[in-house]
Amino acid sequence: MAKYDYDLKKLVVEAYQQGKGGYGTLARQYGIPADSTVHKWVKIVEKLGFDALHRRKNNQTYSFQFKQDVIHYYLTSGDSYLAVALKYGLSSGALLQHWHQLFLHEGIEGLLPKMKGRPSMTKKKQTPKKWATREQELERENELLRAELAFIKKLRALGMTIPDRLKSETHESSTNSEKSSD
């Protein structure tokens, strides 16, 4: 995907706002392969202003609940990725598409924050794990199952189809916790 600088994006959007052409005309005039790119820039500026056209230098993190709300709205509204992303203040529909794919493949757990970086390479004497206790693990699993159940109930209430992996009687997380209790 080609990266365009802020000045070009601003120039194209201003030309559109001044009525100097439509999406296709401006795309050809400025050497942009797809008129949908110009359309996206215009919609972003209309909703979030010109500052949203800047490339972000740092990655923003979003909470689990925020991701769940955005995915729920996307599934129930029927709006496009870009429309939902702009409604929630995201400057790109690609991020929402990524979250949706994670949800489809991994379920609600796919939206949880991931550990960053490489694990430590130092060899230490085996010490008891500082991870969560058995009770904390069960509480976390319980919380995830409650969230998943609430999501399934919302899908049923809206008359939407429930993905097959959510219909199974035994969940991977519950079978994994039973194995780890040995």
TrEMBL record:
The record's GO molecular-function terms, alphabetically, read: sequence-specific DNA binding
User: Region labeled Disordered — which residues?
Assistant: 163-182
| Positions of the Insertion element IS150 protein InsJ-like helix-turn-helix domain | 9-57, 66-119
Check the record and name the InterPro entries matching this protein: Homeodomain-like_sf, InsJ-like_HTH, IS150/IS1296_orfA-like, Trp_repressor/repl_initiator, WH-like_DNA-bd_sf
Q: Which family does it belong to?
A: Belongs to the IS150/IS1296 orfA family.
Entry protein name: Insertion element IS150 protein InsJ-like helix-turn-helix domain-containing protein
Q: Where is the composition biased (Polar residues)?
A: 173-182
Q: Which Pfam families match?
A: HTH_28
